[in-house]
């Protein structure tokens, strides 16, 4: 069978599986089993079992359950809500105050949870009622919340960054560190757009009287409610940046400190601990199945010869490596309109990474660019994951059409960030050079 026909059949099978009601990870694994049967033969089971074990029994993935647990503890103990209240008081009378609050809070909690869905759901539940009470326009309610929720994919410690690095064979520590400045750049673009639009059209976010808070009181609240979360961030991310710890060690320390902070300052109890652990176990199990399925998919492509043939086809094109890179990012952007980001990783990385290596493209730079595009894909209609997350936590009067319209300006902000990183790779490489 021709290699290109194998690729078409595999991708067609994957798309059909994704459109079914079967969980994505299980659907991917089923397609792998069918593919191995036809490519390797009836005795494929030993190869599949060995592939699954090798893919998940790796030290690289150990930060995943710890990062997930760290975020669950901080959110479920109520510390996140207290921090939002304090940050709100610092913003004063800035245009689009509550919309900007969602961006700033999203950036903070991105560095605590690594979960885009948790970030978006929490901010949507907390801020939407107050925004509606203040007569904010629908676009200024859901747009900034979705955009800021997506920051958890880029700002470390990001669970999806760890998964991406494991699937792509990129140093996870370098990838986590390299995502910090691009993530803050994207948050800055979101904030500037939100402030600028509300300043030009005040009706989108009507100003209201803000209660005056004494600086001493505000400082005391910051020390009590925000500084402990900042301590978790510094000890988790900072330790990786300065090279004191591996991502796994940093995740262990961050999780321990999260429990201690939640115990002394939050509403920690047996119920919170049980909920946090159970949620973490569910998320981690699904991630590990996804990693195993993706590794098996890579082996199916390799055994069929499709990877080598496709790599030769791309490298023989009369294009520079930069344009090939742009083409790969364009493919990811288009896929993001129809498929969720983990599935995109699983489909594209086994094909893209050999091309990246052959074209001598820096893998960390490529990884950050692709993560940015994947982050944007969370907001792209019609199936951006966060579009439906925000719909689930907002009132019925905010329709899917309202949500789609609100998302596009922030998609364009994300594309601007991609262009900046393409033009100035030093932003990505500065902290790891």
Automatic annotation (TrEMBL):
It is a multi-pass membrane protein. It comes from Ferviditalea candida. The chain crosses the membrane at residues 6-39, 51-71, 139-155, 175-193, 226-244, 250-268, 280-302, 322-352, 364-388, 408-432. It is found in: Cell inner membrane. The keyword Transmembrane helix applies. Its main location: membrane. InterPro entries: DctM, TRAP_DctM. Residues 12-425 form the TRAP C4-dicarboxylate transport system permease DctM subunit domain. This is TRAP transporter large permease subunit. Keywords: Cell inner membrane, Cell membrane, Membrane, Transmembrane, Transmembrane helix.
